[in-house]
Amino acid sequence: MTEVKKRIFGRTGLQVSEIALGTVELGLDYGIGDHAHRPAFEDAARILHRALDLGVNLIDTARAYGEAETVIGRALAERRSEFILATKVAAMGDPRESLETSLRELRTGVLDIVQIHGRVEDVMPDPAVVEGLHRARDAGMVRFLGASVYNEAAALAAIEAGFDCIQIAHSVLDRRPEPRALPAAARAGTGVIARSVLVKGALSPRAADLPPALAPLRDAVLRLGPPETLPELAYRYLLSQEPPHTLLVGASSVAELEAAVRFARKGPLDAAGMERLRAEPLLDATFISPALWPQTA
After folding, report:
1. Theoretical Cys-Cys bridge with 137: which of 107, 142, 273, 290, CB 3.0 to 4.6 Å?
2. pTM for this one?
């Protein structure tokens, strides 16, 4: 299988693969319904190694992702030079202790990208966190600084504040970043990581497992096409744009990762396909943002 294409990650100059590996599923039980089971370490290690073998060179994690950092460090310590490592710190307080823990668990001497793990209600980051990250960068612990955000105002604030990158929810169902946030990032040279590309698995056959409270989401998903075609549609829709520079794939199996890489190799959608998808009405944020779903989901 041909390696994943690379894109220049904004003004950082880093070359990042179009497909990146998100690791929340490797550290926590995460997903929809009965599919929310993290793999055993041996299976997680296979996913991580297969990602690098396919040319996926950005691995994204967080202190909040359960055992994910520990799994990555244990599995990939001998291949550390082959990938860009991104993690996150909490949105409040001095991040020094969190960074030291990440360095230890990830078995690395430097963190390539550290993002403030924003909360749904946040707009401006806590000055104490920003100050602490700048000190960490000056000390050589961190190379680039970013913000993982949940709303347009926070994305625009992070871009204006000069963060090297942002991580945002962006999908064929959640096109809210497209009118303002993505153009602003492009003008500023801010790297953009897209997460929730499959809306926590809703843009897949797992849509059938969505609870009744999310019926409008399930109906919107089914309007897009047969469930088995939705993952390809979701990835290719975002890869038809730049930014985002890279899309996070949450894979609980090697097969899911390989499928995302296959979809990326097919390239952008045609103009007619993009026009059809952009004509779909936007749902309320409570349906398209997994962070706002009811706990039963």
Report:
1. 142
2. 0.96
